[in-house]
Amino acid sequence: MNINPLPQAYTYDLKQSVSDNRLLGFWRMMTGFRRHYFGAVATLGLASVFSMMSFLLIRYFVDEALQAPNLAAILPSVALGFIGLALLQGFFSFLSGRLTAQTAEGVALRLRNYMFDHIQHLTFTYHDNMKTGELIQRCTADVDTVRRFFSEQAIGVGRIFILFVINFGALLSLHVGLALLSVIVIPPIVIMSLFFFRRVSKAWDEYEQQDAKLSTTLQENLSGVRVVKAFARQQYEQDKFEADNYEKFRRGRRFMLMHSGFWPITDVICGAQILVGYGVAAVMVLDGTLTLGAYLAYAGLLINIINPIRNLGRLIVQMSTGMVSFERVMHVIREEREPLTEGAFQPADSLKGEVVFNDVTFGYDPEAPVLKGISFTVRPGQTVALLGSTGSGKTSVVSLLPRFYDYTSGSITIDGVELRDYPRQYLRRQIGIVEQEPFLFSRSIRENITYGVGREVPDDEVIAAAQAAAIHEVIETFPDGYNTLVGERGVTLSGGQKQRVVLARTLLKNPRILILDDATSSVDAETEDSIREALLRLMQGRTSFVIAHRIQTVMRADLILVFDKGRIIQRGTHEELMAAGGMYRHVYDLQSRIEDELEKEIASVGLPL
Amino acid sequence: MSDFHYEEEDFSSQFNGGTLIRILQQARRHWKWVAGFVVAVALVSFLDAFFTYLNKLIIDEGILAADRDRLVGLMIVYAAMIFLQAAAVFTFIYLCGILGQRVMYDLRKKVFNHLQNLSFSYFDRTPVGWIMSRVSSDTERMADLITWNMLDIVWSVTNIVMALVFMATIHWQLTLVVLLLIPVLVVVAVWFKTKILVEYRKARKLNSKITGTYNENITGVRVVKALNREAANLKEFDGLTSDMYRAGYRAAWLSALFLPVVQLLSAVAVGAIVWFGGLETQVGGITVGGIQAFIAYITFMMWPVQEMARVYAEMQQAVASAERFFSLLDSKPEVVNRAGAVEADTMRGTIEFDNVTFYYQPEKPVLTNFNLTVKAGETIALVGPTGGGKSTIVNLLSRFYEPKAGVIRINGRDYTEYTLHAIHARLGVVLQTPHLFSGTIRENIRYGRLEATDAEIEEAARLAGAHEFITALERGYDEPVGEGGVLLSVGQKQLISLARAILAQPDIFIMDEATSSVDTLTEALIQQGMENVMKNSTSFVIAHRLSTIRRADRILVIENGGISEMGSHAELMRQKGHYYNLYTTQFRQALEQQYDPFANGAHANGHSANGHHAEENVA
What we know:
Chain A has helices at 22-29, 34-65, 71-121, 124-129, 132-174, 176-181, 186-223, 225-230, 234-287, 292-309, 312-334, 394-400, 424-430, 445-450, 459-468, 472-476, 495-509, 525-539, 551-554, 574-580, 582-606, and strands at 355-362, 371-378, 383-388, 409-414, 417-418, 431-434, 513-517, 543-548, 559-564, 567-572. Chain A is an alpha/beta fold.
């Protein structure tokens, strides 16, 4: 099924097509398809030549054949001539269409794939700052506009130009004066249509904007249906929608009015041109300076020149929107990818898991560091707990390990090797992450569990992982078991269930270093225990980083780091920290205070009223 | 997780005549417009054919006859026809274009107004994205069918008929050749257009899949990167884009083949005309102008045929669109005013659930023989596990749904004897996830009572504890809240929706407390706001906060579709049952949160992508 339709779509790195000159950019984007494109233009030219020749054949038919004494003998070949010319014209225009499609669809295929791959290779910093909707817009709508540029406008403008040159050449060969007379109207028509389509495209934009506004109103009404009903505001909503709806109608009407003005006017101008041409040519026939056959050929050629010109303005305006989309696509392509396999150190084996931070500083914005002077050491298999408020830097510390971000200064080593020297891909293979808000893909549960393992996984392994993550029994209750789809088209999982699927996924991945980023906080109480057990199982034998803000979760850690404002303010084991007093002790003490208060509370209601 | 709906484009392969007629009926009100553009386009089409005939006359009677006066006369007619045609073109674009907009406007209005009356059950089972497509794209396709498609048919049919008439007047025997051509052209055109349409549909489906894949890969980019899935994902994606390439390419080359094939067929006919016509000239059966006209008519014939084929394909889509659209329009609201329902000024009074049973699906009852009597002015707290039936109770009370069995009485009267408006107008509701509309803060609060003055709005905001933060905003009450209120924090949205409910001065107040935590100050303000609205109304609160629970006159523990415990806070605590457990768990959590020394710096993080998350409470 998935045989590459176009090998050349994969060999060219689109990064090279980046250019400040947009036309050059378009040119480079056609790399690998230029032969197709020029083939398309050339065959289009040939098709136009044969189409033009059928008019000359009419001239021959009227001027020569009909006058010839052996008319009956000549006629079949003239008839065949028309068919032959149509055959040739058809063949070449079909070829041209095919080559155009190959160019446009090929460029689009390569661009889609490139954008997709590019985006998953862009840095976290880029994704943090880019809106999803905006990025999707560029990958879909803008890419499609670029495709249309190649399939319609680039070839369309060429087509009009070729039609003009060939037909005008033929006209000149018929009669120079007549030929010149026949194109007077072209410059004003082109200017007019350019002017018109520019305004029309503005009117169209306004129409589309109102459409977007109407959609928002509708969407808000539908998603707020409870509020609307609860306040009995149906009439109000209808009025609001009516206002937006009417405005859309008004703008659409305006758009239509513009069209209803433009087309009749150009009809009249073009009609006048044709009429004048016919009239002058007819008089020339009567005066004997033009043959009747030439008159007939002229009549056909004239229409072939005039009609396409009316669309030139539209094409040029569309080309300018194509340019805008191209720029927006290029803007994404210009971004640098993060190299996945580069690294001075190419390890052959798994990590042992010794992690050393030494005076590490880091900021998403280099001006505003979120981590300052972080130093600590973890031995293989140990568990480190990171405690602190949101924004104190816990998540940033663990984000550095898979090289999601690179630290600004200081040193981090794993097994004695500087982190920067490891290839990112290797690190990410060795590190397992369970995030606070588990993310599942709209695939089957089985695929979600094996996602990222990078090999074929037998069923019993999947089931074993699911059992260890305490989710197997839940999955069994789903209609299609492990093949049940997650999300809109399948089952909706609760936060705790999602979390356990992610745990199974991580178990299967079998990482050497484990990061648990507040993994139980979005889970309800009933499932918390089963998840906690699964987590403990997962942590066994791996260097683990546990982010939490409740003491119970971290008490058993080998090393507890207490964070505040990007610094480590306390460190040690539970016992050491308890003895030392300070923040940790303070947090711990609250626990017993809470129990005291609860008892008081219960006592207060326990008394007879 | 994802807002993208995989738009299903399923078409019934055959015309549903009834649906087609129903679409056409949508234009009945505007029949004059339809008649106008039909006449105009018929005229345009007639003139298109007539120009060819004029050309024949110019050649035969002007040039060949060397009659200069006749030539001038024909030229004048030609010029007049140009102006006439331009006028007709103007008329049909104007009428058809504006009628199309008008029909879309009508359809959108009709369906929107219908949507306002549909019941909750409809929205429960219908995704918003699906409805949106009906309102936007389906209305457009239907309007196109009534206007441009109809116009194209009229133009095509007129053009072919007039061409045949003119040809027959020139030379009827040769016309028979053309008559042979037409059915062949039609069959070929329909075959091609149907094939092309299939590819387009494929491409459209693939396109929405591609968009969905982009969306998922971008929103899940952290996981993708962490799990080194880049190469595998690209390979999968390449499968989609390669299929897309194939569909697009196939559609394109089918189109590229279509015209040449049709042209070739025409050329065969032209060849035949040249051959027989040429022979006929010798016996005077046809003139040069006549042959020229035949060639022109035949060459031009492919356009109306191709238009009709296109329209045929588009009409299939329009009918499928209309089927979905009408299915929405035909769905009946389940909760409606009973015959003879009365308006009432107040809903204050005793509220009584009498043996109420309710289910969404008959095999899964949510409430069974539920009984409850609430005195006017009482505050009821509903607690218990998710899915126990708390929301159902308030939804029934709000008459968003009606009991499947049993009666709910307000002020001693079966509440279905009131109009829906009577109940809803006296209701104040604050949802768990507050919903705001785009617009200013003022507009959002005014939603509670449209005729409220600015002073009343401010008063409501004060009572809700929202005034402070609103006036601190740059534009105060005129600050826009953004789409769905995105520019405000969750706490601020809650305060505004409280103010909205307070402004409504409801007799029955319903609040589904938010589970997400807000900062302590906002929390206190919300409490105060709730107290203000509860003072004057009978209140039902799905409670998550201890203070709310404690303050309630009565607490109902709802489990498995019934009341498992009921009483005041103190009474229930003494029972040491479910409530006791629930309360102590929550108490611990609340205190933990309250005392959490880490909770202060909660917004210090400049790294917003995965910053704040909501803590969940148990109740």
